[in-house]
Amino acid sequence: MAHADLNLVRTFVLLYETRSVTLTAQRLFVTQPSVSYALSRLREQFDDRLFVRGRNGMEPTVTARQLYPALRDGLQQLEATLASGRDFDPASCTRRFRLALTDLGEMSLLPRILPRLHAEAPGMELEVVALEIDRASDWLASGKVNAVICSRPLNAADVDRRALFEDRYVCLSDPQALGGEPLDLARFSAGRHVVVASASGHDLADEVMRRDGIERKVSLEIPHFSVLPQILQGSDLLAILPAQIASDFAARTPLVVSELPFPVPPFDVTLYYQAGATSAPAQRWFCESIIAAIGDHEA
Description:
D-Maltodextrin-Binding Protein, domain 2; LysR-type_TF; DNA binding; LysR family transcriptional regulator; LysR_HTH_N; Arc Repressor Mutant, subunit A; five-stranded mixed beta sheet; alpha/beta; 3 domains
């Protein structure tokens, strides 16, 4: 691809990752006809259709699948090199950063992170992407997000990490759910439970229960933690959630926090980002600002 310019490589990589002309145009801040024209030039250079319309969008051909790894890696290295040679001034930054969070992160972490980012870079934009834990590593690899904050370890080889703080799991309930008695294993197993979908990544306690043969009755499954205070008040339901947000909920409602009647190891809430990405000044500033914002609160 000796005569291809950088914009053609960007177009190819984004088309491969998004399978969509529309999304590629949005990510490149160009029109859809511009992406179609770039694709026609790519097809001419490689003498291959590269992408064909299918049931799931623009499906890559065999040639495109062979080209993608080398073009993706080369693009990442080149963009990092170009970025490292430029000065970065947060005060004049207008770019958009994308951060994947659970709704717990939105409630407890975003109010700490956003003021620091906007104090240093008032013109920057932050897009919060709802975390889907099984897709988080792919999002980082493809550049869909700049960073992910989650509690489940991401073990992909091309991902760097920084632990932000330690937390643990507890039980939250209305006082009447326990009748004034301590939460023991018998009451836990006999009680009715509300659980949050595993896409949030908060399933360590479930893994421990499966391992130890601890059973419970799940009466309600919901996608988000944020509605738990409204659901639990006046009900007999029990919920497992991180201690930090459970304490916040209990401070604002009549709900009570109980220790789990079986041991669950503590966990790290961790910031993940693409390996080597912090060589780019803007990405380094973004990650360091998040670390500092959380660290100031935890200190």
